[in-house]
Amino acid sequence: MQPNLSKRLYKLIKTQNGVISAYESAAKEQQNVAGQLSLWGEETGDESISDISDKLGVLLSEMAEVEDNYASSLESSRQVLKHIRNTESSVHPTRENKTKITDQIAHLKHKDPTSVKIMTLEQELVRAEAENLVAEAQLTNITRQKLKEAYMQQVNAIIERSEKQQILAKYSRRLLDLLDDTPVVPGAEKPAYDNERAAKEVLIDAEEELGRWEPSQEPYAAPSRLESNLLPSVGNGSVMENESIQNGGHNLSGDGDERGRKSETNASSRSAAHSYDPKVLETAS
Amino acid sequence: MQPNLSKRLYKLIKTQNGVISAYESAAKEQQNVAGQLSLWGEETGDESISDISDKLGVLLSEMAEVEDNYASSLESSRQVLKHIRNTESSVHPTRENKTKITDQIAHLKHKDPTSVKIMTLEQELVRAEAENLVAEAQLTNITRQKLKEAYMQQVNAIIERSEKQQILAKYSRRLLDLLDDTPVVPGAEKPAYDNERAAKEVLIDAEEELGRWEPSQEPYAAPSRLESNLLPSVGNGSVMENESIQNGGHNLSGDGDERGRKSETNASSRSAAHSYDPKVLETAS
Fold first, then answer.
1. Quick one: which of A131, A153, B30, B104 is 20 to 30 A from B53 by CA?
2. A114 vs chain B: nearest CA distance in angstroms?
3. ipTM, interface predicted TM-score of the complex
4. Residue B188 pairs with which residues in a beta bridge?
5. pLDDT tens-digit series, residues B202-222
6. DSSP character at residue A193
7. Strand, coil or helix: what is B182?
8. B186 in a domain, yes or no?
9. What pTM was computed for the model?
10. Residue B248 belongs to domain with CATH number
């Protein structure tokens, strides 16, 4: 339980932004290269170079677009990680509050062991521990699901980029094969270029295959939807009755979990759980 | 035949450098993210998050390495394009020289039609035209072969990156599947994490499959090796005898080419061609 937990993730999210910017920049520069290749080819005055480089420019430009879409998917994934970071930030005060009251009790017990304030503080501590217990469960739930969701998104994005660029690479190769690079002797007339139709066909086939592409992987689906309070819908009704909550977490048992995971259809009376919902946590949902 | 031909390619090569820098930067930032993910996971205090994020960091780091190797391959391809640019630069003066002499003759014919200098200039023009004819053939040969080589390299690099990252993506998915994200209720003890062994197995399998990877595509091979003078080995012996060269290119026929492409084994006496090799072109080889 490190105080700098949300800082760690804050940093990761920031660095990830750098990754995304780099891909956006790669895509943009690649688009420029595609255009420049086409222009250069035209100016060589070599009909075959001109046609092939123009069409290769089209395929390179498509690859740049795939790269840009990849950057967008990484950005969506980054947004998902922010949910974890926000929850981490909101859980922190509940940890500090617990520690603060515990310290106050210890201080008072040493200074004035008979003070009536001790009992008040101990009641406060039970409430603070209950609040923190809810917050920790919310954090666990959001962290596991959002981590999985964020990186499943990245994995799917990598697969999409790879599959689409492999299609484009295959047709680029077919296009380059149409360029006759048998060396010529000085003064000899170059054989006429007659692959224009075949080259056009390559582009049409590439577009068509790319258009047919569909994701082979399912997007991430959470095993059980979290309620807006970040707890499983099933557990909400029983939070109040949970013995460990009533004891401020001193008596942790597996019972609550067992119960919680059995009856997933029971989403009754969420009001009880809501009374425990600390304000700080609502900002995270 | 544009004077700014080599400038066009110069620009493309420069932009391509921007593409490469972007990928290098993406790889570097991705390495940082991988490390930060592992550190963050450890600090969550959640055993399953800690283990999965640590191992996911390893796979993300491998992906970053693949990305960095991709950048290196793009750099090799960029170096190949420089051959074309250098040859373009060296061909340009032979074009200008031809134009200059042609202009001088026209000027003199107008100013002093009986000047003996005209005949000298016309002999000079024949030599300049022959020089240019050789240079243009060299440029055609280098341009076609190097363009093909450069982009075949890129295409193979894209395929390598895609295939390797697909392997890593597949195992990343398998790793994420080991993270139980069933929501927990407050105060309930989390079920013990017992996927450490399985997660380790994922990394081992990923390394193994990545290690087995081999390119499915052949690297580019020129159809016929160019000599260091950038002409086909077959044509060198016949450059002097080529009628169109002797006429300074005024009488272009397809004969030289036909001859040149038939007997690829004949690589005799290159000296004749070398006598035509302009100094400017040697810098390009």
1. A131
2. 32
3. 0.80
4. A253
5. 999 999 999 999 998 778 887
6. P
7. coil
8. no
9. 0.80
10. 1.20.1270.60
